[in-house]
Design goal:
By secondary structure, chain A is mainly α. Chain A is built from eleven helices and two strands; from the N terminus they run ααααββααααααα. Chain A has one domain: ABC transporter involved in vitamin B12 uptake, BtuC (Orthogonal Bundle). By secondary structure, chain B is of the alpha/beta class. Chain B is built from ten helices and twelve strands. Classes of the chains: A mainly alpha, B alpha/beta.
């Protein structure tokens, strides 16, 4: 019984990691850009939501709704004015630029919000739980997981059912030929990064409600996101969810055996999957 | 003239591929550009479409300098390209490959999904499979249909017969009269001289980055083409 409970908690935790990773996966899938500031952008969005809730006394979900379009514009501008200039055959410049952004964001947030640990108040939702018969789970983890699935379904709908998604896929396949279709690849990249920042805002909402955060923890979140994306198979969103779940379950199982093993167990699971399937669980057909 | 190049030069790094090319295309006209492998035909089309950016005045569309515009802007002016090697999008189905051709620009005109499927009926049957799962000839049909979907004013075709069996080439060229009749001005780049002359009003021959012959397709002599194509005295 305790094992079922542990595994269910792990699966639900995987939802949070999938949320961390979905934006990363989206951007990598479209423009082969690895954004090293992704974790810090999640923390930045969490501070933005916190600021909106505390300033206007708003519910955090409403605050996230306000933060999301702002983050879209910031993401769009980041891509349009910075990252598009360094994208090219050489993968090093974008890595260096996003690494620099990561450092700058951490320092900026330290100045603006201090090193104190913060949390987005979620009211009664924080401790509410529901009895599912075999196991009792918290509303918050359940809601996180459901949101992760909704985000992935939503992104897949955009990808496979809209003209914008068609342009995303075409540009990802071949930007030069996409431009012969009248599509501006750099404009598509900017929209994609904007969209990724909306996903980042959603991830930040749950991160901030479920745990304490401070300006320095972004890179640690980034590692889980990376691992989820890589073992899922680069560019596959459902694979990213599967990757998140594997890491989540490994962590809760590890913690059940010995609390000190939680983090290590996640990393070991990552390495094991990578050994067995070097291209991830659901690799893209074309690459 | 709907499209003109003026003393067009182009280079890949230090390597010069075009040395002052002048070609012109009138509305509704079909022009063939022939020449051996490496003559610079694809480079010419890439310069027109903006994949290679040049000095503005080197390419004119309706008299306006477009040589420095990016490819997406050139396309939106109504200049569509069937690129060498077809270049279908592997992540898109046949139908999506067609749709994306008319997604950003869709001028009024005869071409839409239904009329492209009428032109190439096999594509309707295979519309849901990935474009790259088709045979070479069918892929070429998708590439042509994709370019037609925007109802372009100028259609540029880069070696649409390359690598295809003669019967397949015949099928594809059988569609050319209907494409011409729809009103687009067309440039066909070919190594297959006979095919090119069969559809063209005028012909240019290129060799080593220069135009070596410009003549009406109906009256040009084999000797003149031979000389211009291979650079030998006629
Ligand atoms: N991407 C490229 N980089 C360097 N040289 C190129 C490139 N593409 C073509 N060339 C060179 O430019 C010349 C013209 O090529 P191209 O325009 O493709 O000829 P064609 O289409 O007539 O066969 C050739 O000598 C070719 O080797
Ligand atoms: Mg060529």
């Amino acid at each position: 019984m305790i094992w079922v409970d542990t595994i269910v908690q792990g699966i639900l935790l995987g939802g949070l990691y999938a949320l961390f990773a979905a934006g990363l996966s989206l951007v990598f899938g479209i423009m082969r850009l690895v954004n090293l500031a992704h974790g810090d952008l999640i923390i930045f969005a969490a501070f933005a939501i916190l600021l909106i809730t505390s300033t206007f006394g708003l519910n955090p979900f409403v605050a996230a709704l306000i933060a999301a379009p702002v983050m879209f514009v910031l993401g769009w501008a980041l891509q349009r004015f910075v990252l598009n200039r360094v994208l090219g055959k050489d993968i090093l410049p974008p890595l260096l630029v996003t690494f620099g952004l990561s450092v700058a964001l951490q320092n900026g947030m330290l100045e603006a919000f201090s090193a104190d640990s913060q949390r987005i108040p979620a009211g009664p939702l924080e401790s509410a739980s529901v009895d599912l018969g075999i196991v009792t789970v918290g509303w918050m983890p359940l809601l996180t997981f459901a949101t992760a699935i909704a985000v992935i379904i939503g992104l897949n709908q955009i990808f496979y059912r809209t003209a914008l998604g068609r342009a995303f896929r075409a540009t990802s396949d071949d930007p030069v030929t996409a431009s012969l279709m009248g599509i501006a690849p750099k404009g598509i990249f900017a929209i994609a990064t904007g969209l990724a920042m909306v996903v980042v805002t959603i991830a930040a909402l749950y991160l901030g409600m479920r745990a304490n955060f401070d300006p320095s923890i972004g890179p640690a979140r980034l590692i889980y996101a990376f691992e989820a994306v890589i073992i899922g198979g680069l560019g596959s969103l459902w694979g990213t969810l599967a990757g998140g779940i594997i890491i989540g379950v490994a962590q809760t199982l590890g913690a059940a055996i010995n609390p000190e093993w939680q983090i290590l167990a996640g990393h070991i699971a990552f390495l094991v999957v990578l050994l067995v399937r070097p291209r991830g669980l659901f690799p893209r057909a074309v690459d | 003239m709907i499209l003109e190049t003026k003393a067009l030069t182009a280079a890949y790094g230090q390597f010069r591929a075009l040395f002052g090319v002048d070609v012109a295309l009138a509305a509704g006209e079909t022009v063939a550009i022939i020449g051996a492998n490496g003559a610079g035909k694809s480079t010419l089309l890439r310069s027109i479409t903006g994949v290679i950016r040049n000095e503005a005045g080197m390419v004119l569309h309706r008299g306006e300098a477009i040589g420095a515009l990016p490819a997406e802007v050139v396309m939106q002016r109504g200049i569509a390209m069937v690129p060498e090697g077809r270049k279908l999008f592997p992540s898109l189905s046949v139908e999506e490959n067609l749709l994306i051709g008319g997604q950003v620009r869709r001028a009024a005109g005869p071409w839409n999904l239904a009329s492209v499927y009428e032109l190439f009926p096999i594509l309707r049957e295979r519309r849901l499979v990935p474009g790259t799962a088709l045979s070479g000839g069918q892929q070429q049909m998708v590439a042509i249909g994709r370019a037609l979907m925007s109802n372009p004013e100028v259609l540029l075709c880069d070696e649409i017969s390359l690598g295809l069996a003669p019967v397949v080439i015949r099928d594809i060229y059988a569609a050319m009269p209907r494409i011409k009749a729809s009103g687009a001005a067309i440039i066909v780049v070919e190594q297959d001289i006979g095919r090119a002359l069969s559809v063209a009003d005028r012909v240019y021959c290129m060799m080593e980055g220069r135009v070596t012959l410009a003549a009406p397709a109906a009256t040009v002599s084999r000797e003149a083409i031979h000389a211009a194509y291979f650079g030998e005295a006629a």
